[in-house]
Amino acid sequence: MLTVEPTAISEVKVVTPKRFGDNRGFFVETYHKQRFVEAGIDMEFVQDNHSLSALAGTVRGLHFQSDPFAQAKLIRVVRGRVLDVAVDLRRSSPTFGRHVAVELSAENGRQLLVPVGFAHGFCTLEPDTEIVYKVSAYFSAAHDHGLRWNDPSLGIDWPVAPADAILSDKDRKQPMLAELPIYFA
Ligand SMILES: Cc1cn([C@H]2C[C@H](O)[C@@H](COP(=O)(O)OP(=O)(O)O[C@H]3O[C@@H](C)C(=O)[C@@H](O)[C@H]3O)O2)c(=O)[nH]c1=O
């Protein structure tokens, strides 16, 4: 009923629940706790978020929350397309500073599981793109942090040039990886 594929960073997974198509369209169980647990995805999600980005080339991120509000995220697209990115911030990880980038779309129905210890962000590839995601800890402004989306040391091949990206004021000024304190051992 769902497939789970590891990515280049094995803890980051692509989850694709089965769609049942018929003459009306499709039906899909986008989250089923028992099936996710059986597939090794065992976290409690406590908040659902939904964002709309009006223009293609909108970049949100890279964001993460620190303990005790660190969040795992399960992200999917319900309209449009994004390049979704997770950056490993776990200092003792062999993949610290490395990232995974996956295209998620309303059409492909893929979900990205981003564990605790990663920064997350995305770039919209179409106008009016909406993403919906579950998080495993409540939002806390005091624990909300960012990393500069186009820090050259991350080597992310974003599908938009820096001069054309649509960003929040906050995300324009996020720190570089080298400036971040250790949030995740
Ligand atoms: C994320 C979040 C924001 N807010 C508020 C704060 C602010 O006034 C407004 C917009 O917040 P932001 O600019 O941080 O929204 P946005 O840039 O969409 O933030 C999101 O980006 C992606 C990449 C993520 O991974 C998410 O976890 C989250 O950080 O919404 C909440 O009330 N609850 C929440 O959970």
From TrEMBL:
What are the annotated GO cellular component locations? cytosol
The lineage is:
Bacteria, Pseudomonadati, Pseudomonadota, Alphaproteobacteria, Hyphomicrobiales
The catalytic site is made up of: 63 (proton acceptor), 133 (proton donor)
- Function summary: Catalyzes the epimerization of the C3' and C5'positions of dTDP-6-deoxy-D-xylo-4-hexulose, forming dTDP-6-deoxy-L-lyxo-4-hexulose.
Pathway-wise, it operates in:
Carbohydrate biosynthesis; dTDP-L-rhamnose biosynthesis
Q: What is this protein called?
A: dTDP-4-dehydrorhamnose 3,5-epimerase
EC number(s) of the enzyme?
A: 5.1.3.13
Keywords for the protein's UniProt record, in alphabetical order: Isomerase
Q: Does the keyword Isomerase apply?
A: yes
Q: What EC class does the entry list?
A: isomerase
Source organism superkingdom? Bacteria
Quaternary structure and partners? Homodimer.
